[in-house]
Specification:
By secondary structure, this protein is of the alpha+beta class. The chain has a domain at 2-142: Alpha-D-Glucose-1,6-Bisphosphate, Chain A, domain 4, CATH 3.30.530. The chain is built from seven helices and seven strands. The protein has a seven-stranded antiparallel sheet. Helix 2 crosses helix 3 (118-138).
Length: 254
């Protein structure tokens, strides 16, 4: 068989896609990949007319020296004994506005597909190749993982940090009371008065002078002797002067 499909993308883009098995697997329409198997391996349901056949198999795409690609695959029915083998050659030709993809080769099959009309089988194969070629043109590269970006792109150098603000010196706390040489406290009279007010109501303390049993005991007072001396000195002087006058008068009489 031979079939051509026009794809509106450049040739180099299709070559990159065909060189990546993961992207090739995405381009196979309806492929359900098997976990842990080759990328282009798994289950594929093919609709032929009003019938559908599910195959399990794998396809391998390899580049040739002449620029073409070899497409080889085999599969078996999941519910039957039938099988399919294909050997195709895929060529890319640069065309105005895109690329022409040409499929050529042979395919052999047995089982259920041989019981279906040949025209329906041919239409199903053409539809499958058209969708495969279109999907090749729409395939995109996988986004790079964070670790891959770290390997390819060096991390930018950190920007210089702004100068940090200089903290103002903290003033030392005020000295405690025990740091003073003189004791800090109320006068003795005030302390004595407060001791005598214990037990009185707030109104009595604020508005009435202390009386009775609550009155503060007055502190002992010493009598100053300054006043007595102030009057005794002149009197002594007068007595002394009188004694002198009397003494002189007595001497003259003798």
């Amino acid at each position: 068989m031979e079939h051509e499909v026009f794809v509106p993308v450049p040739v180099e883009r299709l070559r990159k896609t065909l060189g990546d098995p993961v992207r090739v697997a995405r381009a196979v329409p309806g492929l359900q990949q098997d976990a842990g198997a080759d990328p282009v391996a798994g289950r594929l349901k093919v609709r032929v007319g009003s019938h559908s056949i599910t195959y399990r198999g794998a396809v391998h795409v390899s580049a040739r020296d002449d620029g073409s690609y070899a497409v080889e695959g085999d599969a078996t029915e999941t519910r039957g004994t039938g099988s399919v083998e294909l050997a195709l050659t895929l060529r890319l030709r640069d065309t105005d506005g895109g690329t022409t993809v040409t499929f050529g080769g042979t395919a052999t099959a047995d089982g259920r597909v041989t019981e279906l009309p040949p025209d329906a089988v041919g239409s199903a194969v053409v539809r499958l190749l058209n969708r495969f070629a279109e999907a090749l043109g729409e395939a995109r590269e996988e986004p790079e993982q964070p670790e891959q970006r770290e390997e390819r792109e060096p991390e930018p150098e950190p920007e210089p940090r702004a100068a940090e603000a200089v903290e103002a010196p903290v003033e030392s706390p005020a000295p405690l009371a025990d740091e003073f040489t003189e004791p800090v406290g109320p006068p003795a009279e005030a302390a004595h008065a407060r001791r005598t007010m214990i037990g009185r109501s707030a109104e009595e303390v604020d508005h009435a002078p202390p009386r009775g049993r609550y009155a503060p005991v007055p502190a002992l007072q010493t009598v100053a002797s300054g006043a007595t001396l102030r009057w005794a000195a002149p009197a002594a002087a007068v007595v002394l002067a009188s004694a002198i006058v009397v003494g002189r008068a007595l001497r003259k009489r003798r």
